[in-house]
Amino acid sequence: MRWAYTAEQIRAAEQPLLAAGEPLMRRAAYGLAQQILRLLRARHSRVSGATVAALVGKGNNGGDALWALAFLRRRGVHAVAIPVGADHGAAITAADLHAEGRDALLQAGGSMATHVPEDTAVVVDAIFGTGFRGSADVPTMLRDAGVTVPEHAVVVACDVPSGLNASTGEIPGVVLPADLTVTFGGLKTGLLLGEGPRVAGRVELIDVGLEPLLGETPTDQMVGVFEKDTSAPVGAVFAPPVWDAHKYSRGVIAISAGSPQYPGAAVLTVAAAVATGVGMVRWVGVTGDDGDDDSDTVSAGVVAAHPEVIAGHEADGRADAWVLGPGWGTGENVHARYRQVLDLAGQRGTPVVLDASALELINNDDVARFAEIRRAGGAVVLTPHAGELGRLEERLLTEPGADDSHGRVDAVELWRARRMAAHVGAHVLLKGPTTVIAAPDGQARLDTTGGPELATAGSGDTLAGLVGSALGRTLPKTGSGTLDTLDKIAAAVRLHALAGRRAQQYGPFGASALAPAVREVLAEVGE
Ligand SMILES: NC(=O)C1=CN([C@@H]2O[C@H](COP(=O)(O)OP(=O)(O)OC[C@H]3O[C@@H](n4cnc5c(N)ncnc54)[C@H](O)[C@@H]3O)[C@@H](O)[C@H]2O)[C@@H](O)CC1
Ligand SMILES: Nc1ncnc2c1ncn2[C@@H]1O[C@H](COP(=O)(O)OP(=O)(O)O)[C@@H](O)[C@H]1O
């Protein structure tokens, strides 16, 4: 796992090193040049003779690119810098650029230009970096300057795409989307939130020696990031059973989901939990303890699809984790069931996942119930998408709107999830293209592994079942002692994302394809 930081945190960490004369810019530029060389080698047989053009602003971001061009020039690259931007209304020129960088480039034999040569293989976007404020329309700036980016050129953003807020992921104007972003010192949260993932392309991090200083950031301000190619602890959380396991020791997942209106939600949530391999999955209807005909239809559907499921109407049975809410709708009994399970969980310390319709039932009185569950050793996990979180905010917070007093109106997903988690004393799993998981103590994780193939009805029900399984299953004693609720939720999110990718390999799919794909992913993880 890597950590991500706001631009302000990165800039603060840089200060002592810059004051001590550390050559941060040259380290950053060297890393950028290496990444460009790698691209050139992959796309062209020869590095020497290839053209790399940088769109250079007047700040240090431009300085990075100028130094990188100087390194590339020494490797035989045709290196060209094009000043882009304005100062007091007048277009900037070479004289306005970072002086040392410009001199380094010229001394190395590079050149200044007013347009991007047609044979350019790589265009470096170095107009603005973390010093960007306000808004900018980069394509219009380029058009006004008579600069055209050739269609065949690969666009590499220096630190962040110019015009992207490096902390929040907002784009107040328009940016030039990058194929690759080479970022320096630490991963910026803006590359992972909001519009960031859409415009940053692949992200490579260059170590410039900030890590020790960033490590001093309070943990509630660091954001853990699960990298695409390393695992959130999927293997540890969804580990195979130990040799002397029995069905109760492996974990019993109790799921109250579905209604006559949405019977499929029950099947999908149950299917996900079953697919992870647990000791038992119980399905519990939302009617009174006697059940009724309507609920029996849902029950029959669940058992027909999954004969191994124990279906009934009593909440008071064995449960190592509860999942409440997928497909409940607004039936008259859901509220009683919701209250009953929260009270039971408070007495027993059972983790509870509140999804979909259950989220609509939460009010401020429940905060004390959630605290009770945590005190008893359990956890509460809310799994809203942005719309559901908005409704929670309206109901629970006195100031539901996004607060911009910290200069991060967005970081929206991160900030909103953290705020809600702290307010209600529960973990908040905020679903979307970037999934945010916030703990009540301020810690957070981001995962961008999931693709848009997951945006299909019932995919959230599947995720709720996976989170329930992660919280209720018994972990092997060895090697998993340090896994906390945040890790378990993160593992479920990652498993969901990997299942989406796996299912997609066989073509477009609906959510019922996810549970079989979960089994395939776990078979590989376990190998
Ligand atoms: N993080 C690190 O470890 C390092 C960061 N460095 C680089 O330094 C960069 C930050 O440099 P700076 O602080 O000089 O800032 P930038 O180079 O990001 O941009 C600042 C310039 O752009 C102008 N500007 C900002 N917003 C504008 C807008 N909306 N319209 C028009 N002009 C605007 C400012 O007036 C200023 O002249 C980083 O992004 C990174 O590339 C490296 O040089 C050293 C290592
Ligand atoms: N564009 C996207 N890219 C990646 N993941 C997405 C995207 N849109 C939605 N998702 C994921 O798909 C799932 C959808 O869940 P949800 O909205 O609750 O669906 P439903 O309620 O229909 O089951 C979530 O895990 C969410 O993170």
Automatic annotation (TrEMBL):
PROSITE patterns: YJEF_C_2, YJEF_C_3, YJEF_N
UniProt domain YjeF N-terminal: residue ranges: 4-216
Binding-site list for (6S)-NADPHX: 60-64, 159, 265, 327, 385, 461
SUPFAM superfamilies noted in UniProt: Ribokinase-like, YjeF N-terminal domain-like
Cofactor, free-text remark: Binds 1 potassium ion per subunit.
Residues the record lists as binding AMP: 431-435, 460
Alphabetic keyword roster: ATP-binding, Isomerase, Lyase, Metal-binding, Multifunctional enzyme, NAD, NADP, Nucleotide-binding, Potassium
Positions of the YjeF C-terminal domain: 230-525
Cofactor: Mg(2+); K(+)
The organism's place on the tree of life at top rank: Bacteria
GO MF entries: NAD(P)HX epimerase activity
EC number of the protein: 4.2.1.136, 5.1.99.6
Positions with a binding annotation for K(+): 61, 125, 162
Catalytic activity: (6S)-NADPHX + ADP = AMP + phosphate + NADPH + H(+); (6R)-NADHX = (6S)-NADHX; (6R)-NADPHX = (6S)-NADPHX; (6S)-NADHX + ADP = AMP + phosphate + NADH + H(+)
Matching HAMAP family: NADHX_dehydratase (MF_01965), NADHX_epimerase (MF_01966)
Function: Catalyzes the dehydration of the S-form of NAD(P)HX at the expense of ADP, which is converted to AMP. Together with NAD(P)HX epimerase, which catalyzes the epimerization of the S- and R-forms, the enzyme allows the repair of both epimers of NAD(P)HX, a damaged form of NAD(P)H that is a result of enzymatic or heat-dependent hydration.
Subunit structure, interactors included: Homotetramer.
Family under the similarity heading: Belongs to the NnrD/CARKD family. In the N-terminal section; belongs to the NnrE/AIBP family.
Identification of the protein by name: Bifunctional NAD(P)H-hydrate repair enzyme
Gene behind this protein: nnrD
